Amino acid sequence: MTRRALLLATIAALALVAVLVIGLRQAPETKTSTGGDSHPLDAVTVRAKLGGAPPALAALHRRANDLLPGGDEKLKRELAAVRGHPAIVNVWAAWCGPCIVELPVLQKVSLDYGRRVAFLGVDLKDNRDRAERLLRRIPVTYPSVEDPDGRIFDAYRLVGAPSTIFYDARGRQTFVHQGPYQDRRSFEEDLRRYALRA
Question: How far is CA 132 from the centre of its chain?
């Protein structure tokens, strides 16, 4: 690795830690009005798990918890930017109870696979303030594209939220799971089957 590449990787890792530390400081440690426990991320664990990620994936990590405007065109650009890596798109909303139950599963799996797999969220027809509060309570290591009018949701022909869409490294959609993942094991099985092995 050249000195320049090493310097860029170090800067990216430090930026990721800074973003997540800020998010951790903002995350409440007790129950909030939206219900449920908080699930903070430990900055040391994040650095250990995600440090050294390829540049396209590190770019996602630097925007952890961000809500990105732009709808379906923005999602297409984000997926194009990570082509060459498997990708998982999770459609969620702060008004969706099953999404809130599933979010800690996504948090943990994205930490363990974030150096190999691109994770992106789609925030469906949501109130931005509520969505930001939820992400402070259960922070994730990737950004979400806002879908205020449901165009992304409709394009995937989904029947509800949460839903999770899997892509292989060539950018081919390989599977859609509709409904929540309530445990880590079933999510990891689908990830390995439809993203890593596809």
Answer: 14
